[in-house]
Amino acid sequence: MILRLATSSRRHDVRIAQQCLALWRPPGNATGLCPLLRHAATSSRVGARSRSKSKVMLSDLPASKLDKEGNSVGPLEAFIEARPGRKSSAKTKEPPNAAELAPSGHALYEYDETDFLAAVEAGTVPDTRLARVVWANWKCFPDCILLTQVGQFYESYFEPAVQLSRILGIKLTSKTYKDRRLFPFAGFPTHQRDKYLKLLVQDMGYTVVLVEEDKDPFAVPGKADKDIPRKVARIVTPGTLVDESWLGGNESRYLLAITLDQSATAEPNAVEGDADADADPNSLVPLHLAYADVSTGDFFIKETTAAQIEDEMTRIAPREVVLDSRLRDSWVSGEKSGSSAADNLLGLLRVLGVHVSFASPTRGEQVPVPSGINLEREVIAILRHHLQYALRDSMPAMPENADEFNRESSLAQMQIDAATLHALEIRHALRPGGLVTTGPTSPLGLSSSPLSVRGTLLSVISRTVTDSGHRLLKRTLSAPSTSLVLINSRLSLVAAFVDREPLRTDLRDALRSMGDIMRIIQRFRANRGDASDVWDVALWIRSIQRLVGRIQLAVDLEPKSRKKRKDGEQVEGRDRLIDLIDDFAPLSDLATTIEKAIDETCVPSAQMSEEGSEESATETEEGTAAPPKTPRSRFSRDEEIRKREEEMRALWWIRPGFSPELTDLHRRLTRYTAAHQKMELDMSETYNAPTLMLVRNIVHGFVVNVRKKTEYGLLERSGLVHTVGETRSGGKKYAYTEWSKLGGKIDKARQELEVEKARALSQLRALVVEQASAIQHNAELVDEIDLSTGFAQAAVDLNYKRPVLHEGTDIAIIDGRHPSVEAGLRSSARMFTPNSTTMDAKSHMHIITGPNQGGKSTLLRQTAVIAILAQAGSFVPADHAEIGIVDRVFSRIGSRDDLFRDRSTFMLEMVETAAILKQATPRSLILMDEIGRGTTLDAGMSIAYATLDYILQHIGCRTLFATHYHELATMLGAPAAIGTHVDTSDAEADGRVRDGVRFFCTDVDEMDGWFSYSYRLRPGVNYDSHAIKAAQLAGMPASFLATAQATLDQLQPKHPAQ
């Protein structure tokens, strides 16, 4: 009785219940019933006024039904099951369940009831069950876009609805509830979710909270669907997108977690007299990175330092960064965190403009992190907890420990810093022009970015035909290998495809039809994916078999090598292809299982049925909205029959023999369908009604539909039917008992069949996930084939040659070319002038002089690009190339500033130069162009010389240094200027030039007042920059050129070296 009063909508009844609770003492030890009654009373309008917080923990609720003595007499199943089935109305105001509200899974149910009721009285929100759900999640996620699923719509209410309407430009309307008040309302159909998620998350940077209906996928639909519980299903952020349709398949979307060493929590103090005291101690603070592309299941881990974090961020290009939740307050307030390294990291993230989130290494936000916790485990925990927070029930499996991640090592990869990635234009180029596609199917998705891929190394070399292969290409160019074994293994595979054009062509054609299998596997791991996805897995496995079969055919047609392979010997040609075949894991049994379970001819129908089932709802759960206007269509019996056939085909995509339950349901439904067709045909003939059809109407249920008035008579006189409605075109609907009975059986069988199909689909997905490791292994081999055949195709198209790599530090590039410059010249029917670069211990530093626009910077870049391509496993644009493994590539090329970080052009140049001098090793390659500009002549020259001297004395690595400071040549031992060109070969031979230094230059060819750039590199020093000639080419006015020449003639006697 008390429970009935406590849940009443009348305030008087609730007050009586509260008084009874205050006075009543249950006999014995029956206290277990009190939490239930308190929950009922305090969840009402009156009870809420006496308690500001309404909170019930799972542990507070009784675990079983209790008798008067407090003893357990049975489970509470009846009470739990009753809630979802109760009709929702203004008189039944139940609090939402736990999953609808809990943001992190700790509190079962908590929201401020007093504030909610105050909002109700103020007219901000109505007092309904759905309003409570929306209110609680609105207050829980105040800075997010909240979308609540109601039937076939995602809806936004109250103040958030006004914001959503303004942001998306959709219509803002209002909804009426029981008290007839109007409340702001906006929304869109569920099938448009991906469209608006793209706008909100990718284009505008919002975080979107999806509150969805929590239906049991294996439950047969019934009346309980009118009161469906809801839960926060996903929190969509830029780094947690899984299978949205608008995702660019050839783009990785990394979520990056970063942790700092605990030593970074205090401000480091420089030690007086320390040799490294001038260096920033924060640069040495260890950082651990864990990053993942959730959509493909790629997980990586790496250890780095604070000095290299910007370079790693540029290489990884994460869409979102997750930090330790202890840094949240510093990020929000902008105040110092007590750690200089942490403050520097937060400042960098602000400069880069990346989306930042926070997660705790421990599950409970209030639990302190143990001081001895391993940083590697901590960063993995932060990554995992953020994914769990964002993806919830759709969280796919991820590696449990660091050993299961793809571990990246700075020693195993060529390190290319951020400045070099930009300067060499590996992936992006800051130049005007539209974006172009470098992948097989879709653009790079950089519509909101000024970055272009036109003219980049990626755009020139890319010949991949699959999305996953293109992703591998981008990763490889950004971080080539330093392992001689891995590099030569790929070069051998590329060479095998270069030499076998028919095989290369057939493999590339086969690869084009292969889907992105790992995206499907990730959907399955998240308990998502439909019948077409399962069938695509079988198709992919069969495509692998045909791919391997084609390679095997090529191998079988070639004679066997008589040479016995030695241990450790590089495998080439036919033997390399055999190794590739042997590396594939067998998966034919899985494909056979899927093919036996699924009817291929019905899979497209099943997909169309799912897409077409998203109809517009005419009535929502608690409020009402005007029904959508639909165009009137002419009656077509053939069209209705065709529609029925499509619906039936959609039911049969799982073969009947998959399970005994499906066999029985197929048999029953086939029998019922035949009875339906017979009944319809018999009635049409008996009552002379050709337009008569037995249909299911959304309002009247199973009815006899007759289109023409001339066909009513016999049917109505039969006494077997009675009129229930009319159609808009003048037809009538009749109720017929026999059809209602048969239709009910059909409906019940179809619903049971849908449940069994869902169960079968779940089982098939589980079978695929069991083989996920083998599938991923084969997918990686397919990507390797795509990358290698792409490299081979580029080598044939562009006349590239196989490089020779070794463990030394020498470089010998004969007639090398810059890929991007060559491609640009070729498009305008011009030829590229190749140049050679030879470096060894005696000539590891090249000082390059010459005229402006004479090709100095191109030479610098082409040397680095050739080294990158070689270590990526590609052939290179040169007649011959021998390259010692390069561990790092550094460049200081170009002129720009960084106003956001208050760095002028000169200061930015000094910062980048300092980083090079600190991080370069004897195996590095340094490119420097015009160091020391932006200040006075003497100061700039001093800085340039000091840079060269430091490299010679402390590093000794391969260096290309372009300059217009011709005095540097004399300072390094070259002869004094006599004319505009000086041959330095004698000085280099007799030891007057500093050890390791060689001089090269470009020049201008002049004849009869005309000139042209030779671009051909030759030994020596060029003391004339020919700057006025470059100005003439730029179109300067004649008077300007005359003034400039006269001024130069006056200055040259004072500064003959210029």
Return the average pLDDT rounded to an integer. Answer: 78
Radius of gyration, in angstroms, nearest whole number: 37 Å
Which outline best applies? Answer: elongated
Beta strand % = 15-25%
First-to-last CA distance: 104 Å
Count of helical stretches: 37
CATH superfamily of the domain at 804-1025: P-loop containing nucleotide triphosphate hydrolases
Helix/strand class: alpha/beta
CATH class bucket of the domain at 804-1025: Alpha Beta
CATH topology of the domain at 804-1025: Rossmann fold
Would you identify the CATH architecture of the domain at 804-1025?
3-Layer(aba) Sandwich
**Low-confidence runs of at least 5 consecutive residues:** 21-61, 75-109, 265-277, 364-372, 432-450, 609-635
Helical residues, percent: 40-55%
Q: Strand count, sense and closure of the main sheet?
A: 7 strands, mixed
Major sheet: order of its strands? 17-27-28-29-25-31-34
Number of strands: 35
Biased composition (Acidic residues): 611-622
Region (Disordered): 604-640
GO molecular function, one term: ATP-dependent DNA damage sensor activity
GO cellular component, one term: mitochondrion
